[in-house]
Design a protein that fits this description.
The complex is a heterodimer. Chain A is mostly helical. In chain A, 67% of the residues lie in helices and 0% in strands. The longest helix of chain A is centred in the middle third of the chain and has 32 residues. Chain B is mainly alpha-helical. Chain B has eight helices and no strands. In chain B, 39% of the residues are buried. The chains are: A mainly alpha, B mainly alpha. At the A-B interface, helix 1 and helix 2 of A face helix 2, helix 3, helix 5, helix 6 and helix 8 of B.
């Protein structure tokens, strides 16, 4: 027996003794029993859940992301339009966003006139 | 009946290819193809289950559960890898689950001496005094060390494969094999001195 603590190869003597000690009974009978049971093998609930767990997590993450974007968009609402104009067009956007109508005398005034 | 454990590297590729073919056929509903895998790995599965459960009937039940579970989970198996370690992981888990359930029910004999050889209803199952002594010694080891030493010295798997089967780092497997061997060798030495 290779008893050195530094020996990491298989130990044939111990292996053979253990193998004899654990040797099961009639193999043919066991195989026949398992083969007969194969016809009744059905996925257990937990196995099915396990198989779907990965895909389910991805789908749930995508759903949460989509819902978050939707909620954020709804919360911003129409006010976001004014902000967009103000940010994108500078002073001219103030005319579009002004609450009072423009002065007609200014609009219809002749350039260079009195 | 084939039951020769992991193959040599030169035969490994052929065996993996052969197993991949059997798995593909089994996935397609060919139960005979899965039956070939059952024949091939029945011995390993039963021995590994027995290393955890001690009682041969319990071990066979766990091994059968594991084969059925493997059939259901075949879609998760990567056919580029060897079938044995994947199956034995399921076997080890099935045996551990069964052992845990038995512990909860307090149905298991807790005294290792009770599992030692001697006259009794299961005396026929004990082939030799040495076998009984080793089984009793195994029963005293922590479950992970039992699995590690049986997978290494009986089934011939390497440390890295055992690490994947048990789900622990490779260094832990080396340590478990070392400590289990030392314990079993001490028991064997004591037995040899007595006889």
């Amino acid at each position: 027996m290779t008893g050195s603590p530094f020996f990491h190869g298989p130990d044939p003597e111990l292996g053979a003794a253990l193998r004899r000690a654990l040797e099961p009974g009639d193999q043919t009978e066991f195989v026949a029993r398992v083969r007969a049971a194969l016809g009744t093998a059905r996925p257990r609930t937990w196995d099915v859940l396990e198989q779907w767990a990965g895909r389910g997590l991805v789908a749930a993450a995508l759903a949460v992301l989509a819902a978050g974007l939707l909620v954020a968009r709804v919360q911003r609402g129409p006010a976001g339009l004014d902000e967009a104009f103000a940010a994108g067009f500078g002073d001219s956007a103030l005319a579009f966003a002004a609450e009072t109508p423009p002065d007609p005398s200014v609009v219809f005034a002749t350039p260079g006139g009195p | 009946m084939a039951d020769d454990g992991p193959s040599q590297p030169s035969r490994g590729d052929v065996r993996i290819s052969d197993e991949a073919d059997l798995v593909a056929r089994a996935r397609a509903g060919d139960r005979d193809a899965f039956g070939v895998l059952v024949e091939r790995y029945a011995g390993q599965a039963r021995r590994v289950a027995r290393a955890v459960l001690e009682d041969p009937d319990d071990a066979d039940d766990a091994a059968q559960d594991a084969f059925l579970s493997a059939l259901v989970k075949l879609g998760q198996f990567d056919p580029r890898r060897p079938f044995g370690p994947w199956l034995l992981r399921i076997v080890a888990n099935a045996a551990t689950d069964r052992r845990r359930r038995r512990k909860v029910r307090h149905a298991e004999a807790l005294d290792p001496a009770a599992r030692a050889p001697g006259p009794g209803p299961d005396a026929d199952a004990v082939r030799s005094e040495l076998g009984g002594l080793l089984r009793a010694a195994l029963a005293e080891l922590p479950e992970r060390r039992r699995l590690a030493v049986v997978l290494f010295d009986v089934e011939g798997y390497g440390h890295a494969e055992i690490a994947r089967i048990i789900g622990v780092p490779e260094g832990t497997v080396r340590s478990d094999v070392f400590h289990a061997r030392r314990f079993l060798r001490d028991r064997l030495a004591g037995w040899k001195e007595e006889t």
